[in-house]
Amino acid sequence: MLLRQISKLCTSVLLAFFAAPAYAQDIVIGTGSKAGVYYPVGGSICRGIHGAANMTCEAAESVGSIDNIYALRLGETDFAMVQSDVHHEAFFGSIDIAHSPYRDLRSVVSLHAEALTIIVRDDGSVKNFEDLRGKHINVGERDSGSRRTFDKVLPSAGMTRQDFYAISDSSDREAGRKLCDGEIDAMMLMIGYPAASVTSLADTCAVNLIALPDSVIDDLARTREYLQRVQIPGGLYADIPQTTATIGTAATLVTMADQPHDAVEAVLAAIFDDFPKFQRQHYALADLQKDKMAHSGLIAPLHPAAKIFFETRGLLQSSAMIKNPRINAASSAQYVPQNLLQSDPD
Fold first, then answer.
1. CA-to-CA distance for 218 and 237, rounded, in angstroms?
2. What architecture does CATH give domain 115-249?
3. Cis amide leading into 101 (omega within 30)
4. Model pLDDT, residue 53
5. In this predicted model, what pLDDT tens digit does every residue of 258-289 receive, in sequence order?
6. Could you say which DSSP state residue 302 is in?
7. Exposed, middle or buried, 294 (CB in 10 Å: 0-12/13-18/19+)?
8. Which H or E run includes 112?
C-alpha cells in the first residue's frame, strides 16, 4: 500500500514536470489467476477505461475472492471481483472473513455465473461425487473462493473433511499437474465457464467433470440464498460431452463506500458503453443480460454512483428485485459462439 502511494506521488510529480495531462485516478481491480476468468474480465474492463477515461487501470492478479476482499479492505485495490457467497459473508459478517462485517462494502455490478467445477481423471476410480470419500482432493488455495465454497458443500452432502484421505491446497495450475500425474484424485474450481485453465488441463490429460447430487444442490439452493443450481454445458471441454449439474454463484464487482464517483462511473461505462464488444471479450460474458446486472448476486447496497448510472440507463429494477441476491444461471454462457475469445485476451 505504501509503495503504491509513493508510486502515485512520483507519477504525479513527473507528469506535472513534463506538462503532461494529469490522470484523475489510478484504478486497480483485484481479479484472479491469469488462467482463470476473473483476470481476463478485469483486463477487459481496464481496456475500456484506458480507451475512454482520463484514468489508468490495472487488473491485479490474485489468489481469488478472499484475497481480493482483503486487499480491497486494506486499500491495496480500488475494486474487487468476488463470488456472491464471499460477498455475502464479507458484508454480513462471518468467522471465516477476518474483521467482518464490512458494512462499508458497496456493490458495483453483477457479472457472469460461476460454477463449482469438480475435475477428475477420466481413467480414475472417481465416477461420481460419493466416490470422493477416502480420496486425495485439492480444494484450492487458502484465500480462494473455491476452498470456501467446497466447505459449504460438505454439510449438505453429509460429509466432513475427515471423510477424505487427504485435502491439499495447491494452486490451480499445480493441482492440474498433480491430477494429470496421478498424485491427487480430484480438484475443485469455483470458476466461470469455459475456463482457459480447464481447457488447458483437458488438452493435457483425459479428464472428466463430476456432478453434484440433486439432493445436495437442492439443499444448498434452499439454505444458502446466494447459491443456485447451475448446468455446465457439455462440449465446452475436450471429450466431455455431458452437461454437468452443480451449484454456482454470481461473480460480482465490489468497492468501498468512499470510492470516488468518477472511478465507479468509468468502470461501468467501460462495460456498458459498448456492451456487445464487452461480451465478445470472453465466453463467460457472452450471455450477460443488462437488466440483471444491477441486482443478480449483489448483496451490499449499490454504490451511489452505480445506482445513478443504472437509473439513468433504465436498468435499475424494483427494490424487491434488487434485494434478491440469487443468481440467474442464464447469465452465463449457455452456448459457445465461435468468434469469442476463451483464453486471456491480454
1. 26
2. 3-Layer(aba) Sandwich (3.40)
3. yes
4. 66
5. 999 999 999 999 999 999 999 999 888 998 99
6. B
7. buried
8. strand 105-121
Residues 30, 36, 39: CA angle, nearest 5 degrees: 30
Q: Which residues contact 112 (CB under 8 A, 6 or more apart)?
A: 37, 41, 192, 250, 251, 284, 285, 288, 331, 332, 333
Q: 237, 337 in Cβ contact below 8 A? A: no
Model confidence at 92, in pLDDT bands (50, 70, 90)? very high
Provide CB contacts within 8 A for 65, sequence distance 6+.
Answer: 80, 81, 82, 83, 86, 144, 145, 148, 190
17 in Cβ contact with 9 (< 8 Å): no
Dihedral angle sign, alpha carbons of residues 178, 181, 183, 188:
positive
CATH number listed for the domain at residues 2-113+250-331: 3.40.190.10
- What DSSP element (H or E) covers 96? none
Q: Is the pLDDT of residue 325 over 90?
A: no
Report how far residue 196's alpha carbon sits from residue 173's, in angstroms, rounded to the nearest whole number.
11
Q: Measured in whole angstroms, how far is the alpha carbon of residue 158 from the centre of its chain?
A: 27
